[in-house]
Amino acid sequence: MTAPGSVGTVTPQRAHFDAPLTLRSGGVLPAFDLVFETYGTLNASANNAVLVCHALSGSHHVAGTYAHDAKSLGWWDNLVGPGKPLDTDKFFVVGVNNLGGCYGSTGPMSLNPATGKPWGAAFPFVTVEDWVDAQARLADQLGIQTWAAVLGGSLGGMQALDWTLRYPKRVRHGMVIAAAPKLSAENIAFNEVARQAILTDPEFYGGDYYAQGTVPTNGLRLARMIGHITYLSDDAMAEKFGRRLRHGEHKYHYDIDFEIESYLRYQGDKFAGFFDANTYLLTTKALDYFDPAFAYDGDLQAALARAQADFFIASFSTDWRFSPQRSRELVFALLHNRRRVTYAELDSDAGHDSFLLDDAHYHAALRAYFQNIEV
Amino acid sequence: MVHLQDVRFDHDVIARWVPQGARVLDLGCGDGTLLRHLMTVRGVSGYGIERDTAHVVECIRNDVPVLQIDLEQGLAGFEDAQFDAVVMSQSLQAVRNTEGILAEMLRVGREAIVSFPNFGYWPHRDSLAEGHMPVSRSLPYQWYNTPNVRFFTMSDFEELCAQRGIVVRERFAFDEDREITIDPNNFASVAIYRLGRAAA
């Protein structure tokens, strides 16, 4: 039984690309695969396609469930489906796992054709621009010349923004949610602590742990715990956990005293059980390097001059990772370039994670925006 | 709510004053009705500014580009003379920082158009003479639930403009659906002004 509003059971697909892809880092992938999912139907004029870009730990599995696992709900299932704000009765929605990922697209765990062994540490650095280039190849293969919209939250929002700059004619609406035009020093600092946790784990072996049969679980777990703190707000943590004690009293030990410790350990363990440490490293670097204004001496207005899309920008009041101020920078730089911009600054107590939740106003804004996209 | 007919009158006057194809910023744009009207009849482009999330969603539904910004923060981020006209329909009385927002409107826009309820309207004076705060079509709230925070007459407003080097380029005052030309400070319930900066 398919739940109302659900896209139902979905199956990932794989696209293979033979032409080499030259990356910003100078590296070259002689060939690559992208794993993706689609929901809804591409119409005859192929003008109803929406690309959903994932953030740090996301994947191509945006909506629906897998046949073998009822709990495998897509990461943005509350948004995407028949009758949902991103309505699959109207739109053809595409989710894709990015290069360097660990969910099936070519990444550090894939075999390096030159050696026949996993790429590991030798996998080249990938950037947001590279991801967008790879996604453009997928669009070509799917027969999508122009996206009705490219949408993403956080790092996904950066890809949506980059699409409007790299392929201005191929995006009608750039939808950038809970993102920033570049990371702050503080953002990079958190990423660096996370990376150091992985890089200094004795099980990491310089990134070639596959060959050693080890996994840098401790490092990855710590990295996720640090990251998780930045996804929540002080308010949300206070409300969810406060200073609540596991045993009702202070135990004077390093096991769990406070419930927040239990939560972070659980999140860290869970994540370290399935995510790949090399992918985590590469992805945090892609975040750090993202800065479309870098080639324009830091002039964001000049960097955005190429964009031709309309924009939907949204931020959340308690998001301190990418605060509303960071979205406003983007809004005003787009206004300078006379783009058609809609900006929602939403009240939410859930911090950066708000973009994944289904706050009524947030989803109403997205629904209304999608309804006015012509197909 | 401000009376619907007043709103229509207000919007028609603003549409006459806004040049064809102008770039317009509409402060306190509500559900975007005015901007949509200006887009339709004058081919303008621009944005609405609105604080209230429910209104923001209505604007999006009405296909009006809206920016969710609290006007009490001023218009920081907007550039000098970025718009041909900055409009504020029936909202000036609800903004605390009156002087600041007027200055900002004339920084960001080449012109400013503002409309507001005239506190000097004779029925308002009668109410006060009888010992009560006025409640009328243009001031429909009770003193304890009004969103308005500034109460001023047309004369008060014109005095402020004169003091701050703001030139009144055009003025239109009305009551119900009639233009008021004689003693509007007494006989008009709503006033609309087209404002500019004195030439340097």
How is this structure best described in words?
The complex is a heterodimer of chains A (375) and B (200). Chain A has 375 residues and is α/β, with parallel strands linked by helices. Chain A is 33% helix and 15% strand. Chain A contains 11 helices and 14 strands. Chain A has helices at 128-142, 155-166, 185-199, 209-212, 217-231, 234-240, 259-272, 277-289, 300-303, 324-336, 360-371; strands at residues 13-17, 21-22, 28-29, 32-39, 49-53, 80-81, 86-87, 92-96, 111-112, 117-118, 149-153, 173-177, 310-316, 341-346. In chain A, strand 2 (21-22) and strand 3 (28-29) form a beta hairpin. In chain A, helix 1 (128-142) crosses helix 2, helix 3 runs antiparallel to helix 8 (277-289) and helix 5 (217-231) packs across helix 7. Chain A is globular and about 65 Å long. Chain B has helices at 4-17, 33-42, 53-61, 98-108, 122-129, 154-163, 184-187; strands spanning 23-27, 45-50, 66-68, 83-89, 109-117, 166-175, 178-179, 190-197. Chain B contains 7 helices and 8 strands; from the N terminus they run H-E-H-E-H-E-E-H-E-H-H-E-E-H-E. The mean pLDDT of chain B is 94. Helices cover 33% and strands 25% of the residues of chain B. Chain B has 200 residues and is α/β, with parallel strands linked by helices. Classes of the chains: A alpha/beta (375), B alpha/beta (200). The interface between A and B is medium-sized, with 21 and 20 residues.
